[in-house]
Write a structure and sequence with these properties.
The chain has 183 residues and is an alpha+beta fold. The chain has one domain (34-166): Calycin beta-barrel core domain (Lipocalin, Beta Barrel). Helices cover 15% and strands 35% of the residues. It is built from three helices and nine strands. The protein is globular, with a radius of gyration of 19 Å.
């Protein structure tokens, strides 16, 4: 009898677990309007941004080819960080990103735009496994509290927004983004 309980209990517990709704991405996403510099206001904790107190990403949407990415950060000890990469649109609001150098560029990552305002000035980006989430703004003066309503939508999709780490600092905006294509 104990063996039967041991075998059935995990099945019962699995059936009781809450299933998460499918993740919704931005429909009719306009990659050209996403171009520019995005300041990270907050993020879910992750290993590759450990010790960062400020971060920003610049997306350069070219006339042809992949989107170029420059991620910059500032560690708590004052040391700057920098990594480059590329992205391509693979679905509505869904990008696949690769960062350099080797071997990081062997492993593409999902980068899904979950919410963006009409002006393309504020965005929330995450991954389909719900492990990663970034709150972004083109204005470094914006605050996490400016995202109250969209964060509730993200929470309803199963992201743990209570674990968000707010960056205490912002990197200065570039006067002229370096990745934009000259015509």
């Amino acid at each position: 009898m104990k063996l039967l309980v041991i075998l059935i209990a995990p099945l019962f517990l699995a059936s009781c677990s809450k299933s998460l709704p499918p993740i919704q991405t931005v429909q009719n996403f306009n990659l050209n309007r996403y171009d520019g510099e995005w300041h990270e206001l907050a993020r879910l904790p992750n290993r590759f941004e450990r010790d960062l107190i400020a971060a920003k990403a610049t997306y350069g949407v070219g006339l042809e080819g992949p989107v170029r990415i420059l991620n910059e950060g500032l560690k708590s000890n004052g040391e700057p960080t920098r990594i480059t990469g590329s992205a391509k649109l693979v679905g509505d609001g869904k990008l696949e990103v690769r960062f350099h150098p080797f071997p990081a560029n062997l492993f593409p990552s999902d980068y899904w735009v979950l919410w963006i305002d009409e002006e393309y000035e504020r965005a929330i980006v995450g991954t389909p496994d719900r492990k990663y989430l970034w709150i972004l703004s083109k204005d470094p003066a914006d605050l996490l509290s400016d995202f109250t309503e969209p964060l509730q939508m993200i929470k309803a999709q199963g992201f743990e927004i209570k674990k968000l780490l707010e960056n205490p600092k912002r990197l200065a905006p570039n006067s002229r983004p370096t990745l934009l294509v000259e015509r």
